[in-house]
Design goal:
With 323 residues, this protein is an alpha/beta fold. It is built from seven helices and 19 strands. The protein folds into two domains: 192 residues, FAD/NAD(P)-binding domain (3-Layer(bba) Sandwich), CATH 3.50.50.60; 119 residues, FAD/NAD(P)-binding domain, CATH 3.50.50. Helix 5 runs parallel beside helix 6. Bound molecules: NADPH dihydro-nicotinamide-adenine-dinucleotide phosphate (NDP).
């Protein structure tokens, strides 16, 4: 990376979902002059949902993109600088008080005293053209976000892990009937979750079954399923299809530098947002595969800014003692 006239910031925030913006609001108010790089999808996953009805403080609900614009405005009001761009490379320091080096869009070098990682996770989809066409038109990757819109209706869910099992029972509470498609002859979900699924009367589990095609032009009207053992196809009428086949945390650029679990989620220390590198903090879905809600992401964004502020204060007081 170039040594000449490199811009240096106190606090670099990577990612612009609820975690990133909340971190920005707190960091800006603490006079850390945060600089945020938004990533490829400014506003994050919430910009792909319609109505957000479960974020406290919005009694009438709010649509995801509007909420993210408002969060950005709130962060900017206190002096956050928001730039559109990707952090494509990082060189994280091991030293307390060390400077972290990053590259923006593969070209521009930047240095940061602290980094708050809020790069989120990306829901996995099946990749079928009919599924992609109907995303936002009845195909969703978040039952907790969108299930309510299918109250009293027939829906289907794909996946056999804990998320799918949990979301299937959640949907069964709201919807008339839930069909669950599991591609193997058994679920990967914990025995307790499987037990819950099996004991839910309006939840029909179809093993060895995959999606052949999502039916409908503008909105989901049905599903053609295929038994992967016999090749037999079956059509059902549904209005909503939920994909729950896992998420991928956006952590590729940190691999080999930050401690991660075996699925790539960043490991934070205890109840804090601290990573294994001093001055580098992780918040939101990038370090949380369990809750994954806007409000929990926002909460950890706040924690990350407070952790970063305390870290900078301790570094500064150490420097004063040594001076
Ligand atoms: P998982 O990776 O555990 O499960 C993904 C599921 O989707 C598997 O059943 C997999 O099938 C299936 N799948 C993957 N790709 C496809 C595909 N192309 N077509 C059809 N099916 C597919 O992801 P989860 O999101 O369920 O869970 C992630 C982690 O979070 C896990 O460790 C889980 O235990 C944890 N978690 C815990 C919760 C809790 O404790 N309350 C709640 C939610 C998550 P196959 O088995 O055939 O590979």
């Amino acid at each position: 990376m170039s040594e000449n006239k490199v811009e240096r910031v106190k606090c670099l925030i990577i990612g612009s979902g609820p975690a990133g913006y909340t971190a920005a609001i707190y960091a800006a108010r603490a006079d850390m002059k945060p600089l945020m790089y938004t990533g490829m999808e400014p506003g994050g996953q919430l910009t792909t949902t319609t109505e957000v009805d479960n974020f406290p403080g919005y009694p009438e609900g709010i649509d995801g993109p509007t909420m993210m614009v408002q969060l950005q405005q709130q962060a900017e009001r206190f002096g956050t600088e928001v730039r559109i761009g990707m952090i494509t490379e990082v060189e994280l320091s091991d030293e307390i008080g060390g400077i972290h080096k990053v590259k923006v869009d593969n070209t521009t070098a930047l240095e940061a005293e602290t980094i708050i990682i809020a790069t989120g996770a990306t829901a996995k989809y099946l990749g079928l053209p009919s599924e992609q066409k109907l995303r936002g038109g009845g195909v969703s990757a978040c039952a907790v976000c969108d299930g309510f819109f299918y109250k009293g209706q027939d829906v289907a869910i794909v996946g056999g892990g804990d998320t799918a099992a949990e979301e299937a029972t959640y949907l069964a509470n709201i919807c008339n009937k839930v069909t669950m498609l599991v591609r193997k002859g058994e679920m990967r979900a914990s025995k307790a979750m499987q037990h819950r699924v099996e004991n839910t009367p309006n939840l029909d589990v179809k093993y060895f079954t995959e999606v052949d095609e999502v039916l409908g032009d503008q909105v989901v009207e049905g599903l053609r399923m295929v038994n992967n053992q016999t090749g037999e196809k079956e059509e059902i009428a549904i209005t909503g299809l939920f994909i729950a086949i896992g998420h991928k945390p956006n952590t590729d650029i940190f691999k080999g530098q930050l401690d991660m679990d075996d699925t790539g989620y960043i490991i934070t220390k205890g109840k804090s947002t601290k990573t294994n590198k001093p001055g580098v903090f992780a918040s939101g879905d990038v370090q949380d595969k369990e809750y994954r809600q806007a409000i929990t992401a926002a909460g950890t964004g706040c924690m990350a800014a407070l952790d970063a502020e305390r870290y900078l204060a301790s570094v500064e007081s150490k420097e004063e003692v040594e001076a």
